Here is the input.
Amino acid sequence: MFATYLIGLREGLEATLVVSILVAFLVKSQRRDRLPQVWAGVGLAVALSVLFGWLIEYTSTSLLSRSEDRELFEAITSVAAVVFVTWMIFWMRRAARTIAGELRGKLTEALAVGSLAVAGMAFLAVIREGLETALIFYSAAQGAAGDSGPLLALIGGIVTAVVLGVLLYASALRINLSKFFTWTGALLILVAAGILKYGVHDFQEAGVLPGLNDLAFDITSLLDPSTWYAALLAGMFNVTPAPTVLETIAWVAYAVPVLLLFLRPARRKPAPTATTTTVTERGADTGAEAEAASAPQRA
Here is the structure.
């Protein structure tokens, strides 16, 4: 359940930060009359995200009658979820410093167009997070049919994210968002590795991939599936005591290189050389000042 809580917290906080940036810009610009359009766009995005999540679940449980088709569907959604998770964490790391400036610029353009443009921008800003959350949650909660725990954990993560977002907006709470997204990003990579491992297992059960009975190892005597810690590892990262060879290869082949790429220090731009002209230096200074002005304040 911690994995689904983490998904709700991470995705929810991203969406909350985006909305708070939009709201703060409108308030400071004395355009409170456009706030209803922002909330309308946010509400529509949330509603469609819930509908998308229900559609995925309905397709799996009602539209697909054969077990092989359900396994294949779950495998495809698992792979898609891994792609979305990977793209999301790297995009957030790259765009975190400029997202506020970009959103303010787009909202300025939307205000010039009209109320529908404002609602549409808020909708687009939130719908991506909502659809990702629905897809990742479905993939992470596989095997928990009839158990409301993962859903409650997801809702708890989203509620926590909303509370944090409100407190951040009100300046009542200050956290290091850079470290927060780094740690949660690393944990989500391990969660995604588990989702990929589950997807490979589903492909094997559907007959698409071979080796369903070829185990890489069996440590059931050391990691008893009935114990709480085994259930915790399985629920968070899909670590099982008797995985197949392909499952193990997929987990390691994804987790190790992606973690190394994500955790490596960002490269700094080289300092200008002594031969740089005065015009170039002034242009670089102007660009740096513009970037700093557009970057969100560190909490």
